[in-house]
C-alpha cells in the first residue's frame, strides 16, 4: 500500500510513519510533504498513491485549500489537533478523522476501514446522504457572532450576514439590512469550518459570500466570474479561477 503523508511537524511525521509500520509492515510511505504548495505539486504531477494521511494545519495554511486547486479522489485519513473541522473533512473522501496524538488502535481501525472500502462505497448514495444530514444538523454551524462596538457588546445572527471579507490580518462581516461593517474575531479559514456550507461559500482568499445576498453572477471575458449582490457593495466580488468549478456546483445544489 502506497501512502502519502502530509504533516508539517517532523516529530509527528516520524511518529506516524512508525505507527503505520507497526500497523502494517507492507505500508510504504512513498512521499512526505509539509505544505499545501507541495501537495498541489504532488497531485498535479499525477503521482500514484493508495491513501493520503492529511494533517489539517500545514506549514503554509489549511490543507482544505488544496481541494480548490487540484482534484483529489484518493481516500483520506485526516489527522489533526482540532475537532471542529470534522464536518468539513466529510465533504471529501474521508475514511476517518483522527485527533492528535494519534493512537495506534485508532490508526489501525482507520486502516482496516480503508481496506474494506471500495470506490463504489465511497461514492454511494448512503454516504452522500450522511454528508447532507451532517451539514444540516441543528447546532452544527455557527448561529451568531459576538461584536464589540465601543464599550458595548452586541451580536449578529449568521442569517443577517451578506458576506465576510479579510483585510490584512483582520476580518469583517457585512450585514444585509444595515449594510454595515463589523470587525469579528475569526479568520476566513476558521469561518469556513464554522459556517453552513449550504449557505456560505468562500469565493477567494479574501471573501466568503452568502447565497441569500447574491443577485447576479456575470461571466467575464477572462473566464472569471463576478458576483453582484442585492445591496450596495464597496468591494468587487470575483470568484477565483481555482474555485470556479466548485462555486458552480455550490450554486446548482
Keywords:
single chain, alpha/beta, 253 residues, OB fold (Dihydrolipoamide Acetyltransferase, E2P), globular, Rossmann fold, 17 strands, five-stranded parallel β-sheet
Describe what this molecule looks like in 3D.
By secondary structure, the chain is of the alpha/beta class. It has helices spanning 10-23, 36-44, 86-89, 104-116, 119-122, 125-136, 188-194, 244-251; strands spanning 2-6, 28-33, 51-55, 57-58, 61-62, 76-80, 94-99, 144-149, 152-157, 161-167, 170-175, 181-184, 200-202, 207-210, 214-219, 225-229, 237-239. Strand 16 (225-229) and strand 17 form a beta hairpin. It is built from 8 helices and 17 strands. Residues 120-127 have low confidence and may be disordered. The strands form 5 sheets. A 5-stranded parallel β-sheet has the order 2-1-3-6-7. It has a 5-stranded antiparallel β-sheet with strand order 12-11-10-14-13, with no helix packed on it. Strands 15-16-17 form a 3-stranded antiparallel β-sheet, with no helix packed on it. The protein folds into 2 domains: 2-136, Response regulator (Rossmann fold); 144-251, LytTr DNA-binding domain (OB fold (Dihydrolipoamide Acetyltransferase, E2P)). The protein starts with a strand and ends with a helix.
Amino acid at each position: 500500500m502506497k501512502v502519502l503523508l502530509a504533516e508539517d511537524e517532523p516529530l509527528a511525521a516520524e511518529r506516524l510513519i512508525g505507527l503505520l509500520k507497526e500497523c502494517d509492515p507492507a505500508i510504504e510511505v512513498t512521499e512526505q510533504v509539509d505544505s499545501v504548495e507541495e501537495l498541489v505539486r504532488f497531485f498535479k504531477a499525477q503521482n500514484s498513491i493508495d491513501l493520503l494521511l492529511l494533517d489539517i494545519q500545514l506549514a503554509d495554511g489549511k490543507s482544505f485549500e488544496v481541494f480548490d486547486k487540484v482534484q483529489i479522489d484518493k481516500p483520506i485519513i485526516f489527522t489533526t489537533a482540532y475537532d471542529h473541522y470534522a464536518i468539513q473533512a466529510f465533504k471529501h473522501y474521508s475514511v476517518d478523522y483522527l485527533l492528535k496524538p494519534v493512537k495506534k488502535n485508532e490508526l489501525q481501525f482507520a486502516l482496516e476501514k480503508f481496506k474494506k472500502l471500495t470506490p463504489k462505497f465511497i461514492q454511494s448514495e448512503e454516504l452522500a446522504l450522511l454528508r447532507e444530514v451532517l451539514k444540516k444538523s441543528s447546532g452544527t454551524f455557527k448561529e451568531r457572532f459576538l461584536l464589540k462596538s465601543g464599550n458595548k457588546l452586541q451580536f449578529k445572527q449568521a442569517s443577517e450576514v451578506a458576506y465576510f471579507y479579510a483585510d490584512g490580518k483582520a476580518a469583517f462581516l457585512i450585514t444585509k439590512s444595515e449594510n454595515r461593517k463589523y470587525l469579528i474575531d475569526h479568520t476566513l479559514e476558521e469561518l469556513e469550518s464554522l459556517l453552513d456550507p449550504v449557505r456560505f461559500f468562500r469565493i477567494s482568499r479574501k471573501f466568503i459570500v452568502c447565497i441569500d445576498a447574491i443577485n447576479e453572477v456575470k461571466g467575464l471575458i477572462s473566464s472569471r466570474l463576478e458576483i453582484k449582490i442585492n445591496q450596495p457593495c464597496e468591494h468587487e466580488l470575483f470568484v477565483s479561477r481555482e474555485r470556479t468549478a466548485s462555486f458552480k456546483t455550490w450554486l446548482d445544489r
